[in-house]
Structure formats: C-alpha cells, structure tokens
Amino acid sequence: MEFGRRTLLTGLGGLVLAGGMTSVAGNSLAAGQTQPGGRFEQVGGDHGWKPHKLDPKECAEVAYLGYWHKDYGCGYGAFYAIIGLMAEKYGAPYNQFPFAMLEANKGGISDWGTICGALYGGVSTFSLFWGRKEVRPMANDLFRWYETAKLPVFDPGEKALGFKGSLPQSESDSVLCHISVSKWCYVNKIEAESKQRSERCGRLTADVAAKTAEILNAKIDAGKDYKGVFPVQKSVSYCGECHQTKGNEANWAKGTMDCTPCHSGAKGTMNKFKDHP
Amino acid sequence: MEFGRRTLLTGLGGLVLAGGMTSVAGNSLAAGQTQPGGRFEQVGGDHGWKPHKLDPKECAEVAYLGYWHKDYGCGYGAFYAIIGLMAEKYGAPYNQFPFAMLEANKGGISDWGTICGALYGGVSTFSLFWGRKEVRPMANDLFRWYETAKLPVFDPGEKALGFKGSLPQSESDSVLCHISVSKWCYVNKIEAESKQRSERCGRLTADVAAKTAEILNAKIDAGKDYKGVFPVQKSVSYCGECHQTKGNEANWAKGTMDCTPCHSGAKGTMNKFKDHP
C-alpha cells in the first residue's frame, strides 16, 4: 500500500464487505457515498498520487505490448507503461485506474489525427502527481523532444507483433498525429493503412513511454528545481514576439507547437482544392 | 452502489481495515495487491462503467464552474461535468477518478494548442463505457459539431467568473485549440491573453459538456444502433479518395479533421518567415 504526500489514504476506493459497509479515516469515499467533501473534491487530494521511478527500458517494452493489446493503441500503451507498471509494482491507487479509457487516444483521439495519442498518454501521467506549473517544463521536454527526434528508435526484433524488421526513421516536426504519421508515410512511401505504419506507431509508443519515464525520473530527482532541458523552438519565439505578447494588437495565437509546418508556405499547405492532380 | 454490466463489483477500490485486509468476490483489487489478474487487467473490466443519463443544462453549468475551479481549465471542466456529476449522484466507481489529472488538457494539452482540451475531456468519458467501435460515431458527432458550431453559446449572465456580458461567436472549422482560439481572437480583435478569451473558453467548455451529455443520452437510448448524425466533411471525403484509400500510392494521410484550414492555400498558411510585416 502506498502513502501519498497529502493524505494517509491515497486513492483507495470504496470499502465494502458482503454483510455491510465499513469506513476508515481519511477522505476515501465508500461505495454508495457520493462526493461528501463537496463538488470538485477528489479521493486522495488533487495530484495526490506518489510518483515512483521506473526503468525506461521496461516501460518501452510494456508500452509496445500495450499498443497491441486488443488494439487499444498508442495512448493506452504509453499510459499503461507508466501507471500500469506502478500498479504492477505498488498496487493501489495505481491499480484502480480505468486504463481502457485511454483507448480514446487511438489515431490522434478517435482517429481524428489531433495530438499524438502516445504523447497524451505520457503527459497525462504527470498530472496525477503534480500541478500544471510543475508539469509544464516536463510536458515541454516531452513534446519538443518528439518534434525533433528521429523516430521510431525502439525495435522489438523477433518479438515484433505487427511487422518484423527495421523501419525508417523521420522527424515529425509536429506533435500532431496527422502530421507525424502522414509525413512518415509520405517521405517513406508507406501506406497509412499498412502493417508497417501500425508497427511504426507501436514502436514510437515505446519511445514516448521511455522518454516519459526518463522525464519522470529526472523530476523525482530534481523536485521543484526541475527546469527542463529543451529550449523553446525558434519559430515560437519569433512569432510569439507579436502573436503571443500581451498588449500587442496581434496577440491572438494560442499554442506552443512549432509554427513552421503550417505557416511557412510549405508545399503541403498550398491550395489542394484547385488544379490538384 | 452501482453495478456495471460486466462485473458485480465495478471499479470499487481497495478493501482495507485498520487491523488487516479483507477481500470480496469479484476482480476488485485490494490495496497492497498489485495486478493479480495479470498485466493489462482492469478493476471492473475494460469499459466496464455503467453510463447514466445527465441533464445537458446542468452539465453546462458544472463545466463552466469546473473550468474556473483552481484554473484547472477546459478538460477538467468538461470531464467533471460528466463523470463528476455521476459521482455526485451515484458514488462509486465515478467518485474514485483522479479528476485533477484532466488539468493536463489546459490550453490544448499543457498550453501546446493541440486538441481543444474540452473536447478531449468530453470524448474520453465515452471510453469509460464503450469500446472504440461504439465510441467512434459518438466522437465524430461531438467533433464535427465543434468544427461547425458558432461558439460560445452558453452565457452565465451575472454569474460570470471571468468577464460579464455577451461575447462574439465564431466557427472554429477545427478541433485544434490553436486554430479555434486564434481564429476567434483574430476575427474579433481580442487578445489571446485576455479575460474575454478565458471567458470564451469557459463558456465553450460548458457548450462541449452539454453536447457530450446529449450524445451520451442519445447513445444510452439507441444502444448499439447509435449511428451518429453529422455527415463526414466534404473535404475529408474528397481528399480521402486518394489519401485515405488502401492500395492508393498516395494513401498517407491520417486523421478526420477538416482538411481546409491547412490545405486550401489560405492566407494564414503562406510563408510567414519571409517578407512578413
């Protein structure tokens, strides 16, 4: 049993016996109880789970298996590799999480191609342990690494579940599934609906889980001093001088994604609805 | 206490008494137990929570309050409005969820401007109840509505927590926070870092929660027959004829987002790094 930082009983669920109901001290909610602490109260306190260091290599392997488990995909694989491994090693509260909800992340959230589902699976684990001010540099490190890293790196060898053999690597320049996947497919002439592409995303899920664990471990070591290591993108600094500066009449841009994929007049963003082959 | 569809004990947490540990039948995991069912096992079974109908108007009001609660933002507001309300009305397993993790969604996931955090908050609730085949038409309805609706609609009147008074509405054409927010700010000449913009996102969170509840209610009524009502976007059908068709050499595109904001040669996607004022 794990003791969180803020409460004795962290995230334990309802206490029920066949013949009746028993309660213990703390703010654990019994089954049948609703929200006795009031609206917006949370069992164990907000961000109240205790973080544990994990082996990035083990996380990568579990994430890859999670990706293929019932085809739940990237978000499930990356999230289970962190919180599921804590559940396997430490029990509650980690083993109380309804993991399959992360299936929503597949294909950039229900196949819409928005954020890479593995990235959401990784970054959302941080928010179980820390509030946004502490999470932001961790998220920035994970996301900026993803934009610039040549992925996938992980190779399951003979244990590959979708496609055996090496796969090409490419930089996505973007945390969006649509750009990350489509660019990899376009550059390498591999169909988006192919086993190679599925395998690529499975391996990338392993890479994201390993990076998430590295950042988690570094944060546990550094505590509030964790500052992050990846610098802000040049494009975001440049564009942000006007578009993200308070008091500027052009201060209308929200986001930290690299601006270049969509705002540099690249071939892909020209008019594809006119004179397009 | 709620009984799920697949197990007698759904999502109940650990069973612990001051003097020892007690277990009951079912696959509930006691504190201290890890994952006795094996890797990837889940308390209550995958997608094992029981869905309940909610009043969309009540959800909107709670979502708006959740958005402002400790500044947790859009994802927290939308998610709590669904699962938190079920917790308030029905107790476990809903009240076991570590709600504050949804703070990760703020600003399109840790201020990166990817998916609208409210949309993720809404769609991820569906995956607590159903697998992806049933979730997909629900997600499509929520996301396509968001692309085309003039938002925000919700108006808290005198109870406004960020900015009182009416706000302009606009269509986002996109489920991405960056486009949704930036377009609203650009069109209406309102700074991204302003109280009006925060208020806009708070009201939009209310709108997304209400729509999520409408879809949830319709799904509960229709069961497996739920087909969805929003047609696929013309751009996705048109581009998908080549870019999302198996066997086509140009089958490299992943996603269901409207293609036009980034692939129609719009002014915003021209080269902003050269001869830009």
From TrEMBL, chains A, B:
SUPFAM superfamilies: Multiheme cytochromes. InterPro entries: CGCAxxGCC_motif, Multihaem_cyt_sf, TAT_signal. Pfam families: C_GCAxxG_C_C. This is Split-Soret cytochrome c. The lineage of its organism: unclassified sequences, metagenomes, ecological metagenomes.
